[in-house]
Design goal:
Length: 165
């Protein structure tokens, strides 16, 4: 039996126990369920039958202040071009290009994609390069030059050189 079926069966057992005992409080104590949950189950059972006792599938909420998908794509493209820059500098570059991006937007996009650290962004660029082929026109003519370009970008005055293998 699936977990869905087990849950329906358990909820139905709680309802029948309450009917047999003729005491909702005792049935709820034995089952470890609050009375408000019990009455919600009872109402769902009365209106929808056993299907009302099944767990409901809920969709992920769409937050109203989430970065638009087009802007998120631009942030990720710019990140792929410059994986070693900070989110503040990347937002500044996007603003110079005419894109209305704030540092917080860039940071949240990176967090959602798991790109919060410099090393994670460099690794992401490497996997993207492997999937799409080397970025020869953007970085250099030799396939090995992409690694050297990432090392050059990592050597800014305020950072520690990162070895990319």
């Amino acid at each position: 039996m699936t977990s869905r079926g087990q849950l329906i069966k358990a909820r139905l057992a709680i309802l029948t126990m309450a009917a047999e005992l003729k005491n909702v409080v005792k049935a709820c104590r034995v089952a470890g369920v609050s009375r408000s949950q019990f009455y919600a189950m009872k109402k769902a059972y009365e209106t929808h039958g056993t299907e009302g006792l099944a767990p409901r599938v809920r969709r992920k909420p769409q937050m109203p202040n989430r970065t638009p998908a087009t802007l998120e794509g631009l942030i990720l493209k710019k990140t792929q071009d410059n994986p070693t820059v900070s989110y503040v500098r990347l937002a500044g570059q996007l603003q110079v290009d005419g894109t209305p991006a704030t540092p917080a937007m860039v940071r949240y996009v990176w967090q959602r994609k798991g790109l919060s650290t410099r090393q994670a962004r460099i690794q992401w660029v490497k996997t993207m390069t492997r999937q799409r082929g080397p970025l020869r026109s953007a970085v250099g003519s030799q396939p090995g030059q992409a690694d050297h370009a990432c090392n050059r970008l990592a050597r800014t005055p305020h950072s520690i050189p990162v070895s990319v293998e």
